[in-house]
Design a protein that fits this description.
SAM-dependent methyltransferase; about 280 residues; two-stranded antiparallel sheet; Rossmann fold; methyltransferase; transferase; about 40% helix
Length: about 280
């Protein structure tokens, strides 16, 4: 496994070769009927739409959740920020929602993972956890071991965060805090949230998600939230996203205020900036 595949694994990727190796299963069963493509749709977007419309299997997923402290640093969240109603997009099994709710905050997390039960998600975490850590050891040079000091410390942080998520998940789902939705369209009224956070999804998958998908998704986040923050701005391979400059230009043309800000977090080497978007 190379560093490119490792990063996919660690950020909740789907239909990739390393997952087929790890899980010993094809992404889709082959059959005689072919799912139709839409005009201008990339192969990745087609597979994603197929999952949404026909359902995707949990064994295709590598859940990997980040901690509350990581969210706070990734998005440079202040005490004032944390008082806002927050939308977390593509949160996966992170514990930000659980911890922020305990502190009296308001968070709604959206992710296709949330169509599954806590038990199903836990079983899948247990299946892939040690494999993720083993591959991290083999590719340790791709990461900055400062805040997180070692692979062992990483495992403890991630396991603790995901256990917090699992403890909160069933109650939180019943309360409407965990919802099965995904970009580029969200079922919320305009300006429903003070802030929207998107972690390790947009820009990271620039090789698979088109420029138009990014523009639509970011406009949608800006529609439902007054303040949008996206982290990181690298794509897989630890290089700046091929879409970043053009997306910023297009969003500015749409009348949105866009800027890039350095944050006090860097684990993926070079990944220490976020995109901020606000309505004019």
């Amino acid at each position: 496994m190379n560093a490119h595949d490792l990063l996919l694994l660690m950020v909740f990727g789907y239909d990739t070769q390393f997952q087929r190796t790890i899980l010993q299963t094809p992404v889709f069963k082959k059959g005689t009927w072919r799912f139709p493509s839409l005009p201008g749709e990339s192969p990745y977007e087609k597979r994603r739409r197929r999952r949404n419309e026909m359902g995707f299997r949990l064994q295709e997923v590598v859940p990997w959740g980040r901690s509350y402290a990581e969210y706070r640093d990734m998005f440079a969240l202040t005490r004032t920020d944390l008082k806002k109603d927050i939308l977390g997009c593509a949160d996966g099994p992170a514990n930000f929602n659980a911890e922020q709710s305990k502190k009296g905050g308001t968070v709604i997390s959206v992710d296709p993972l949330y169509r599954f039960s806590a038990g199903e998600i836990k079983d899948q975490i247990d299946k892939v956890f040690e494999t993720v850590l083993d591959q991290t050891r083999k590719n340790a040079g791709e990461f900055v071991w400062k805040t997180i000091s070692s692979v062992e410390a990483l495992g403890e942080i991630r396991r603790r965060a995901m256990n917090d998520f699992l403890d909160d998940y069933t109650h939180g789902k019943e309360a409407g805090r965990y919802r099965d939705h995904s970009l580029p369209t969200l079922p919320f009224p305009d300006q429903s949230f003070g802030m929207a956070l998107c972690s390790h999804y947009l820009f990271l998958y620039s090789a698979h998600l088109s420029l138009d998908f990014h523009r639509q998704s970011l406009r949608e986040l800006a529609r439902v939230a007054k303040d949008v923050r996206v982290f990181p701005l690298l794509e897989l391979g630890a290089v700046p996203s091929r879409h970043l400059d053009e997306v910023c230009r297009l969003l500015s043309e749409d009348g949105l205020r866009v800027h890039i800000e350095r944050v006090p977090y860097e684990f993926q080497r070079g990944g220490n900036h976020m995109l901020c978007i606000r309505s004019s």
